[in-house]
Specification:
By secondary structure, the chain is of the alpha+beta class. It is about 30% helix and about 20% strand. It has four helices and five strands, in the order βααβββαβα. It has helices at about 15-25, 40-50, 95-110, 125-130, and strands spanning about 10, 55-60, 65-75, 80-85, 115. Strands 1-2-3-4-5 form a five-stranded mixed beta sheet. It starts with 7 loop residues before the first strand and ends in a 19-residue tail after the last helix. The mean pLDDT is about 95. The structure holds coenzyme A. The site of coenzyme A has 18 residues, from strand 4, helix 3 and helix 4.
Amino acid sequence: MIGAYSLSIRAFDAADTDAVVALWLDAFPEYKDTSKPQRDPHLSIANKLATQPELFFVAVRDGRVVGTVMAGYDGHRGWLYSLAVDLAERRRGIGAALVRHAESALTRRGCPKVNLQVLSAKADVRAFYESLGYRADEVISLGKRLGSVA
Ligand SMILES: CC(C)(COP(=O)(O)OP(=O)(O)OC[C@H]1O[C@@H](n2cnc3c(N)ncnc32)[C@H](O)[C@@H]1OP(=O)(O)O)[C@@H](O)C(=O)NCCC(=O)NCCS
């Protein structure tokens, strides 16, 4: 519960799958980009259930999933992914509660620093994270897509 607002945050359960996929399709338009088949919400869920599933959280209000966040800890840094709040439920503190919940779970594992990436175009999301104490690091983000294992 946060304040008088009835909200709970718990680990993702397989029964949440349809609700989470629906939420992500709304919150992340890139999931609808058919030119990027690697962006498959069901695959993201399956992969997370195979790796630190206890760090995949949903926010639930009146039995309904209204937010998600994934965290990971690789033994050196923690990472946050897939933070999303139902459009109708935004600006009520749910996103902040999810981030703090994930931060606490990482801290309990001994994680000293958490990183995350925000698309440059998303100025509102950057403002959200800055309100929670996040600051841009003096780094550029590099990535490489890996092939499948033969
Ligand atoms: C980012 C997101 C999760 C924020 O969730 P939320 O529940 O609305 O956030 P909160 O209510 O906890 O906001 C906390 C503070 O962040 C800041 N903030 C939140 N949304 C903001 C916005 N659109 N513009 C500017 N500041 C914002 C405010 O300071 C806010 O406090 P206030 O409402 O008292 O002013 C939500 O907007 C979302 O799901 N966006 C689409 C998905 C996405 O892009 N996720 C991030 C991927 S990196």
